[in-house]
Design brief:
single chain, 618 residues, 8-stranded antiparallel sheet, 5-stranded mixed sheet, 22% strand
Length: 618
């Protein structure tokens, strides 16, 4: 693997030779190259003055070089050349990312790149934006600009500014609540454990219950500029307990906990507390309960200062018949009702009952008999966007959320606000970034989310949380629940922070939890599809990252994906492209999706056997 170091003045002539060989690689003739010789010559004094670095391999062979010219706030990437024999091996990417990192350290806020036309595609793929440049000509340079930014402050605080070990204990977290609306096998939760790749902006290791495709981790690392990520997968054959599975492998547990890196879970559990040697406090997750969260919201509002927030009325049904009577009375009065379980996730256990649906279903009793067993909360239904309008395109979007966390010292850190995609009560995804949340909603949402975070901190809670809201169509926000764990929107925030630091400021990121596939794919074909989607999105000026690959092997196949761009138009186009290509994959095989309920072999089962003591480094 190549590494970057400062160039030495004594290397000036050799580096000049590398530059000329690299320029000649694109087919320029001797006369043309001679005309640029003086401009491209590197003198001993330039090495320090131009901040030249080189990339060299393990044998000390120089593979490429880059310079960072000028000073804050404006600088230029004056040189970036790769030895012809090393082109296509990631050397240019390594040097480019190093230049952005150094620009941030110098306080540069605008980095200009005048690129050879043959290199323009590389800079576009790296996230640089086209800009007005030097005068044209037969071999005119192409100008790009980047706005380098440091990693967001909240993201540095989340893991102390360094790398982390990500523990995908989604099923373990869900199981501690024993909610009747959740699948006992927790199959979906094990799929969602793949989101462990994104629990912080810079993972050192992923700990996963089920095997995952090797090609997936390699593509994710390439798209997000990670290296040396260790993958421990296939740790749980059945059941939800990932932390206990790690503890049952003493060598693995010692390796993970003795690394000196923070362990980041999906959510806090007693088994995780034992693994990470963090005290487990009884009741620390009490506000994961929807009724307890409702009481917390009421206390916050009782203190005043939140005029844009309205709290839905909520009643705890003592029995199923009590819920029937409440729903029937509200339907008779023309009122819609929300039924909730105490601890459903992602919309599980939440049902909206409108008066017409209650009548058509044979009355409240008949409707409730079709719902999961267990305690129910009955809640006032707050507003809805106009029929036939896409909430993601609406100035009054329906579902919004606040994300933040409380650190070990009890300090609150705000990640921001997000627009959620919720359909028929089920969470489908979220969008974060500049302008994702309408301006009228952002200030009151952030203020209320911060107030809830202070209450959580005072109660002793430490970790990530969100506050979900619906809008009433009249410019008011209604808080509906808290989630004391990482969430789909939190994953989008992590990726946005990473892309901004990696490629320059201003990324919108959308996580789509379920993109339907037209056919179940073998692992090799899944890798091909994802690689093609990454290339096609890059041509649009977007970034594609597969987020949940294991759903591709289900009887009804699907993918979780992340797409990112710097404009809403490109973001929407990228998502549409991904959905269309994913749905069309069946036509390539000439057959519809396999209806066989047997999901077939799991991806890369061989990796499970290495999870006891070994690893996969990506």
């Amino acid at each position: 693997m190549a590494e970057v170091r400062a160039a030495r003045p004594a290397e000036a002539d050799a580096l000049t030779g590398l530059v000329m060989r690299s320029k000649a690689y694109w087919g320029y003739g001797p006369e043309f190259l001679a005309s640029f010789a003086e401009e491209l010559r590197i003198r001993p004094g330039d090495v320090t003055a131009r901040r030249i670095v080189v990339a060299e391999d393990g044998r000390g062979t120089v593979l490429g070089l880059a310079s960072l010219d000028g000073s804050a706030p404006l600088a230029s990437l004056g040189l970036l050349f790769v030895e012809p024999s090393a082109i296509g091996r990631g050397v240019g990417r390594l040097l480019y990312l190093d230049a952005l990192r150094r620009a941030v350290e110098l306080g540069v806020r605008r980095l200009v790149i005048d690129a050879d036309p043959h290199a323009a595609g590389f800079y576009r793929a790296m996230g640089a934006e086209a800009a007005a440049g030097p005068p044209g000509g037969p071999h005119a340079l192409v100008r790009f600009e980047v706005a380098p930014v440091p990693l967001a402050g909240w993201a540095r605080a989340w893991t102390g500014g360094g790398r982390a070990v990500h523990v995908g204990n989604v099923a373990e977290f869900n199981a501690q609540f024993a909610d009747a609306s959740l699948d006992r096998e927790q199959r979906a939760a094990h799929d969602y454990a793949c989101l462990a790749a994104f629990y912080s902006p810079d993972p050192a290791a992923l700990v996963l219950p089920r095997p995952v495709p090797r090609g997936w981790t390699e593509l994710v690392c390439r798209q997000l500029g990670w290296s040396g990520v260790e993958v421990y997968d296939g740790l749980v054959e059945r059941g939800p307990e990932l932390s206990d599975a790690v503890r049952s492998r003493p060598a693995l547990a010692a390796l993970l906990t003795g690394s000196g890196l923070p362990l980041v879970p999906w959510g806090r559990t007693r088994p995780f507390g034992l693994l990470a040697d963090r005290p487990w406090r009884e009741g620390e997750l009490r506000y994961e309960s929807k009724s307890a969260a409702h009481e917390l919201f009421a206390r916050v509002l009782a203190g005043g200062g939140h005029p844009g927030i309205v709290l839905p009325a909520q009643w705890r049904a003592g029995s199923r018949w009590a819920a029937v009577r409440l729903v029937a009375a509200r339907a008779k009065a023309g009122e819609s009702t929300v039924l909730k379980s105490e601890h459903g996730v992602g919309g599980s256990g939440t049902t909206v009952l409108r008066p017409g649906e209650v009548r058509a279903g044979g009355g409240a009793g008949a409707v409730l008999r079709r719902l999961p067993r267990g305690p129910l909360l009955v809640e006032e239904f707050i507003g809805t966007p106009a029929d036939g309008r896409d909430p993601a395109q609406d100035d009054n979007p329906r579902d919004l959320t606040y994300d933040g966390f409380v650190d070990a010292e009890g300090r609150l850190h705000e990640a921001g606000a997000a627009l959620m995609d919720v359909r028929d009560g089920c969470y489908r995804g979220a969008t974060v970034g500049p302008g994702a949340v309408p301006g009228w909603a952002e200030k009151p949402l952030l203020a209320f989310g911060e107030a809830v975070g202070r209450e959580l901190a005072a109660s002793g809670y430490r970790g990530w949380f969100d506050v979900d809201f619906v809008t009433d169509g009249a410019g008011r926000l209604a808080p509906t629940e808290t989630n004391l764990r990482l969430t789909g929107p939190s994953i989008a925030f992590m990726v946005a922070a990473r892309l901004d630091a990696l490629r320059g400021a201003g990324h919108l990121v959308r996580i789509a939890d379920r993109v339907e596939l037209g056919a179940r794919l073998p692992e090799a074909q899944l890798d091909e599809l994802c690689a093609a989607l990454a290339r096609d999105c890059a041509e649009l000026g977007a970034v594609f990252v597969p987020a949940i690959p294991t759903g591709a092997f289900d009887p009804q196949p699907w993918l979780g994906v992340l797409v990112a761009a710097r404009s809403r138009e490109v973001l929407d186009a990228a998502e549409a492209l991904v959905r269309a290509r994913a749905l069309a994959v069946g036509s390539g095989f000439g057959a519809p999706p396999d209806p066989d309920p047997d999901p077939g072999p799991a991806p890369d089962q061989s990796s499970a056997s290495t999870a006891e003591t070994g690893l996969r480094a990506t």
